[in-house]
Amino acid sequence: MRLFKIVLWEFLLIFASVLVFRSIWMLLDRIPEMKNEFGLWASLILGTVIVFIAILMINKYSEKNKK
Predict the structure, then answer these.
(1) How many angstroms separate the Cα of 50 from the Cα of each of 47, 59, 66?
(2) Model confidence pLDDT, tens digit, residues 39-62
(3) What residues make up the domain containing 3?
């Protein structure tokens, strides 16, 4: 029963993430600067930098927990 509850909450978390992602996407579509080429490149670069930093931090903290 406990495993079922965990799976249920994980499913709800994934569903909620989809709703948040869709909402952010729709809000960004309303910003005129995000529709031109510069805005698209800027968001791509910013997103890539954030992903890179997040991966580095995850690796840093997961290595600390292994020691």
Answers:
(1) 5, 14, 24
(2) 999 999 999 999 999 999 999 888
(3) 1-30
